[in-house]
Amino acid sequence: MIYILIVAGCILQALFIKAEHDEKYLTADILKGLASLMFVIIGYIAFTRVNHAFNKQFFLGLLFGMIGDILLNLRFVFPKQGQKIFLAGILAFLIGHIIYLLALLPQARHVWVWPCAIAGALLAAALLAYIFKTMEVKKAFKIFGIFYLGAVFIMTAIAIGIAVFTPSKRAFIYALGAILFTASDIVLIFNTFSGTSKFSLRITNLSLYYAGQMLIACSLFF
Fold it and tell me: With contact defined as beta carbons under 8 Å apart, do 198 and 157 qualify?
């Protein structure tokens, strides 16, 4: 069942990318929502089979990821409200990452947690400083970007710390998913705000993101 959902999700994601490229934005958003629904269902199955508190939290994080997916592409359907819808999508992802982070913290009761969190925050600050210096970014995006990238990098750094210092299959798969998610966000930022948007980078961004969310969902079975 899980393998069927993964394959179905990848097919739907590919169809979504093609529909977006063809500028069939409503169809693309529907396909993207369906693709995201596949990793949400996987998270739900994991939560019902392995009924731990953190699995419930991760499932909620995946759910907010799906909401963010739909909103980010809905901005193309309603271009006049594009900025507000985009920011709402970023907010949904931010909530999802905060939920992921809160789920990780009980598993990270070691002295290395704070160094990992600080390292993540410093990397986010360095990236933000570079973005604000080299790209034209509106004030609203800057404010959301500070909180969003901070949460993403801190969550990923702690996930890597858990995988390194208390290794397990679950920790490794989750950390890999978090790394791919973070990489997709970096590609998205440069492709959106650098002024030279490329479809090849859009494919890279979407592929990394979807693989990351799938790995996060599948990690819940371990």
Answer: no
78 Rama class: left (phi>0) / alpha (psi -120 to 50) / beta: beta
If you search the block for the tokens 């939560």, which residue do you land on?
A: 47
- Written as one string, the DSSP assignment of 120-134 is HHHHHHHHHHHHHHH
The torsion defined by the Cα of 156, 159, 163 and 166, in degrees rounded to 10, comes to 150
- pLDDT, one tens digit per residue, over 140-173 is 788 888 899 999 999 999 999 999 988 899 999 9
List pLDDT tens digits, range 67-97.
999 999 998 899 888 888 988 999 999 999 9
123, two tokens? 């990397």
Q: What does the pLDDT look like over 110-130, one tens digit per residue? A: 767 889 999 999 999 999 999
Q: What is the pLDDT of residues 15-66, one digit of tens each?
A: 999 999 999 999 999 999 999 999 999 999 988 887 666 778 889 999 999 9
How far apart are alpha carbons 41 and 8 in whole angstroms?
12
* 194: nearest Cα among 117, 111, 109, 133: 133
- What are 45's two structure tokens? 């199955």
Look up residue 53 and give its two tokens. Answer: 């508190």
Distance CA 170, CA 45 (A): 16
Task: Give one DSSP letter per residue of 157-202, joined into a string.
Answer: HHHHHHHHHS--HHHHHHHHHHHHHHHHHHHHHHHHHSS---HHHH
Q: Are 20 and 194 in contact (CB under 8 A)?
A: no
Cα 151 off chain centre by: 11
